[in-house]
Amino acid sequence: MAIEMPERDAEGYLIEPGDWNEDVAQVLAESENIQLTDDHWDAIRFMREFYEEHQIAADARYVIKHLAERVGRDAQKKLFELFPYGYVKQACKIAGMKRPRAWSTG
Fold first, then answer.
1. How far apart are CA 11 and CA 19, in angstroms?
2. Among residues 40, 37, 39, 38, which one has the least CA distance to residue 93?
3. Burial of 28 (C-beta count, 10 Å sphere; 0-12/13-18/19+)
C-alpha cells in the first residue's frame, strides 16, 4: 500500500512537520538512499521528541550528545556515518523538519 506523502518544498523537506510519521520517514530515507537502522531511528526519534518539546529542530550538537549516551565519544563520527550527506540535508529531512533557514547544509 502506497503512503500519501505530505506536501514538501522544492528541496524535499516537509512543509508541515506535524504531517510526519514513521512511514513518511521510510519514504524520505529511501529518497536519500538510506536504509534506516536502529541507530537512525534512535536519532530520528530524539529529534522528533525535541521538536515536540521545543517546536524547533534540534541542533546537531544535541543529537550528538544524545548519541554519545549509546556510542560514546565517537558520537559525532556516528552521526555523519548515519547521515553522510549532512545533518541538515538528511537527518532533518528524514525526521520531518522544515529546512532550517539559518544553518549550513553540513
1. 17
2. 40
3. buried
With CA atoms as reference, report the closest residue to 13 among 106, 96, 103, 102.
96
Domains (ranges, CATH) in the chain? Answer: 17-94 (1.10.10.370)
Overall pTM surpassing 0.85 (yes/no): yes
24 CB-near residues (< 8 Å, 6+ apart): 3, 5, 6, 14, 96
Per the listing, cell 530524539 goes with 46
Contact 103, 34 (CB under 8 A): no
Averaged over successive runs of 10 residues, the pLDDT of the chain (106 residues) comes to 85 93 96 96 97 93 94 93 94 92 54
Q: Which residues pair with 14 in a beta bridge?
A: 8
